[in-house]
Structure formats: C-alpha cells, structure tokens
Design a protein that fits this description.
Shape: flat
Radius of gyration: 22 Å
Number of domains: 1
Structural class: mainly alpha
Strand content: under 5%
Number of helices: 4
C-alpha cells in the first residue's frame, strides 16, 4: 500500500467475536433460498484494441453488458 493504514489493527485483533457489530448486514434468508438465487461467474480477461474498448465505454455506464451482448449475438449468429 502506498499510504499507511489508519485502522487500529491491534484493537481489531483484540476483539472477541461477540463484540463484532453485524447490524448493517442484510438478512440473507435461509441457506436453501440464498444459494438457489446465486450464480457462478467465472472472471475472464480479454484483450481489446483501445479504440474498440473506447467505443463500448462511450455507449454508457454498463459497457461490460454491451460487450457481453455483442459476444452473445456473435455466438448465436455462428452457432451450428
């Protein structure tokens, strides 16, 4: 890290589990419901020409969705 941490790590290390405040964590429901609603996402790195990436970024905030949509359309057009 470039900046030293301002966290009091000694205080954190000394905390007991029952002293941790979990009140801001939303209720996830039961395990079965929670896991039924999850999706596995495998991260992938691809290299795009800078001008191609710039074009997608210029399309709006969620440019990654546009890239996924274009790849899906290409896949569908070339499916056997």
């Amino acid at each position: 890290m470039n900046k030293p941490s301002q966290t009091d790590w000694a205080r954190i290390d000394a905390m007991r589990d029952d002293e941790i405040d979990y009140s801001d964590i939303p209720d996830l429901g039961d395990d079965e419901t929670f896991w039924a609603q999850t999706q596995v996402a495998v991260p992938l790195t691809i290299w795009l020409e800078p001008e191609v990436l710039a074009w997608f970024k210029a399309q709006g905030k969620d440019f990654e969705a546009g890239i996924r949509e274009a790849l899906r359309a290409y896949r569908d057009a070339h499916a056997k």
